[in-house]
Design brief:
Elements (H helix, E strand, L loop, with lengths): L1 H19 L7 E7 L5 E2 L4 E10 L5 E8 L6 E4 L3 E3 L4 E9 L4 E5 L2 E8 L2 E9 L3 E5 L1 E2 L18 E5 L9 E4 L2 E2 L17 E3 L3 E7 L7 E8 L26 E5 L6 E6 L6 E3 L4 H4 L5 E6 L5 E3 L20 E3 L11 E4 L4 E6 L4 E6 L14 E3 L7
Parallel strand pairs: 2-11, 12-14, 24-25
Antiparallel strand pairs: 1-3, 3-7, 4-6, 4-9, 5-7, 8-11, 9-10, 13-18, 14-17, 15-16, 17-20, 18-19, 19-27, 20-26, 21-28, 22-23, 22-27, 25-26
């Protein structure tokens, strides 16, 4: 008896709920659009969106619409409260930003009140189409043997920074890809039997701001290191004779030339080379792991050497002044640079667009032992 009574109550409630549901107006549409240049979005950057609400309802039906961001608080649209007569459309502008790496489908929503012969109806919701967005995760182009400009424009990630807004947190990353055993390691290159084709590297802006009077569009595009940039198969150039190749993937940045900013990139510790027992703990305090820049002559050099001004003087230890061991500390003096071996990252205060990567520089003593048994590729530690 109790079960039957409860079932009747639930059924009655369901009927009431259905009757109370707001109507969906025929002929009302909401179309969300994003520029194809922005469907690959930098993490923590902003991408512009536009939407159009259209009213193709009956000749006497006008609509008061309010854009509703509650379904997606990361998408902020404006243009609410406008009455749409029959046959009219309402353009809506907005922006989307996301601080979490991943793939998303962005939708927009709105609610409206219909007026028919002066009698308003209940509010009605409407949801737009979905737009696919990739946030932060980059596809690295394959550099082959020596293609140092292998970047694919379709893979670029972009985002806007308004005048006066900061850069901190804007980032992208590659995800590691293994070489296939017995297969080609690089497009157009020879074969390797182990290791990584793409190392998996993050580039993040740690500090700086848009000091111009207009919005900046920042892009990051990625490629893996070419064989001529890998310790096992490197050549001179692009690697200087006393360096050990690159320890991460390569990012190409645009949109920041002339602005001072702090760029941080990760390096793969397992790609460092041990020289007669000298390892990361020995190299790092000497500044022999650093953020590098591919200079116009085709060599990888310290990123601060590409600056217009700033600290460049050799401090007597065969490294440039401005070095700091540890995490970036908030001092944006142009030309400062450092390595944080705890988090396996390098950073520098720079003011130029470039190709950037991390590189170890063991120093001139390495020239005496290149090819000897004392030089080994660092092996992965158990549990790493």
């Amino acid at each position: 008896m109790t079960t039957t009574h409860t079932g009747r109550i639930c059924a009655a409630y369901l009927v009431v709920a259905l009757l109370a549901a707001p109507p969906v107006f025929a002929g009302v549409t909401m179309t969300l659009n994003a520029s194809s240049d922005y469907t690959n979005l930098l993490r923590n950057a902003v991408t512009p969106f536009t939407a159009t609400i259209g009213n193709s309802a009956g000749s006497t039906d006008s609509l008061d619409w309010t854009v509703d961001n509650s379904g997606n608080p990361l998408l902020v649209l404006s243009g609410s409260g406008t009455t749409l007569p029959p046959g009219a459309t309402l353009p809506v502008t907005g922006q989307y930003a996301n601080g979490v790496y991943g793939n998303y489908v962005v939708t927009a929503g709105a609610t409206g009140t219909e007026h028919t012969s002066g009698a308003p109806a209940a509010n009605s919701p409407i949801t737009s189409n979905g737009v696919a967005i990739t946030v932060g995760n980059a596809k690295a182009a394959y550099s082959g043997y020596d293609d140092l400009n292998a970047f694919d424009p379709a893979n670029a990630l972009s985002g806007d920074v308004a005048a006066g807004d900061g850069y901190a947190g804007i980032s992208s990353r590659t995800l590691s890809e293994p070489r296939l055993a017995g297969g080609p390691a690089f497009v157009g290159g020879p074969s390797f039997d182990s290791g990584l084709l793409v190392l998996g590297t993050e580039a993040i802006l740690r500090d700086g701001a848009n000091g111009t009077a207009s919005t900046q569009t920042i892009t990051m595009n990625w490629r893996n290191r070419a064989e001529v940039e890998d310790f096992e198969t490197m050549s001179f150039p692009p690697v200087r004779s006393y360096e050990y190749g690159l320890a991460g993937d390569v990012v190409k940045m645009t949109g920041l030339d002339g602005s001072t900013f702090v760029l941080q990139m990760s390096y793969n510790e397992d790609e460092l080379v041990e020289e007669l027992g000298r390892d990361e703990a020995w190299y790092a305090p000497r500044g022999w792991i650093y953020l590098a820049w591919l200079d116009p002559s085709g060599y990888w050099v310290n990123a601060v050497e590409g600056n217009a001004g700033g600290i460049l003087v050799d401090d007597g230890t065969h490294r440039l002044d401005g070095f700091s061991l540890g995490a970036y500390d908030g001092d944006m003096t142009l030309g400062r640079w450092g390595v944080d071996p705890t988090d396996n990252v390098v950073w520098a205060v720079v003011n130029h667009n470039s190709q950037f990567a991390s590189t170890p520089e063991p120093g001139t003593t390495a020239l005496l032992v290149v090819g000897a048994v004392g030089l080994i590729r660092r092996r992965r530690k158990p549990g790493r």
